[in-house]
Amino acid sequence: MNNTAIEICTLIIENHECGGRADQTILEVAEENGIFIPTLCRLSGLSNIGACRMCLVEVKGMNKLMPACVTKVQEGMVVTVNNERLAEHRRLALEMLFSERNHICSVCVTNGHCDLQFLAQKLGVNHITMPYIHPLMPVDASHPRFLADHNRCILCTRCVRVCQEVEGAHTWDIMGRGTKARVITDLNRPWGESESCTGCGKCVQVCPTGALSEKGQAAGEMLKRRTFLPYLSMMREVGK
Fold first, then answer.
1. Does 190 fall in a domain?
2. 3-class DSSP string for the chain
3. Are residues 54 and 133 in the same domain?
4. 217 has pLDDT over 80
5. How far is residue 182's CA from residue 61's CA, in Å, rounded to a whole number?
6. Domain around 31
7. 105 within some domain
8. Residues 122, 212 within the same domain
9. How do residues 167-187 score in pLDDT, each as one tens digit?
10. In a domain, 102, yes or no
11. How many CA atoms lie within 13 A of 61 on its CB side?
12. CB distance 210 to 101 below 8 Å
């Protein structure tokens, strides 16, 4: 029997007194207490990397903004989730995502079911104030079941992490930097020629946009099923 004591911390998140374990993040404690913090790269059942920077919060006594998904709670911590500074940062981050790739919602298979679209509506981003870059990115339709449209990718790396951490195949990775960065399969081979892909479709289900989708889906039809992730992650830990 494990008799290791678990330290419990009391903290303030958005004027709410909350309690959490010392091994929990600000985001986890906030979710347990019904406090909304926006995020795109984070998904329950996958590791947290703090890539999208949407979940940045203010912590009293800290000069810089802290990513809530990877910052552990501490006793007496005072966290601000919503103010004009944070709202402006999140709007700017969303604008950059929309300007860097091609996100035309009306013709996207995930229209109405898209995490990026949801956050834009939630945070009031109905236009952008910076020029569109729209690099011409490839569309990989070589897989018999799935399609990868890199023009809609936001580089959240959910597909990379689920393939490595849950499926154990590590088919996906990142190539390039800046606006030229994109996810690739098997050292940049076409997806349909991948020797490591199991065809399970977990990468498609965790994708927050229409970048990865099932073939045969019309605009607005692609629903993502993600409830399996926490269970699979838990069972993998039990089996170790």
1. yes
2. CCCCCCCEEEEEECCEEEEEECCCEHHHHHHHCCCCCCCCCCCCCCCCCCCCCCCEEEECCCCCCEECCCCECCCCCEEECCCHHHHHHHHHHHHHHHHHCCCCHHHCCCCCCCHHHHHHHHCCCCCCCCCCCCCCCCEECCCCCEEEEHHHCCCCCHHHHHHHHHHCCCCEEEECCHHHCEEEECCCECHHHCCCCCCCCHHHHHCCCCCEEECCCCCCCCCCCCCHHHHHHHHHHHCC
3. no
4. yes
5. 37
6. 8-82
7. no
8. yes
9. 999 999 999 998 889 999 999
10. no
11. 5
12. no
pLDDT at position 233: 67
| CATH code assigned at 180 | 3.30.70.20
Q: Give the closest residue to 10 by CA, choosing from 60, 78, 82, 81.
A: 78
Q: How far apart are CA 119 and CA 125, in angstroms?
A: 8
Number of domains composing the chain: 2
In a domain, 3, yes or no: no
- Residue 148's pLDDT is 97
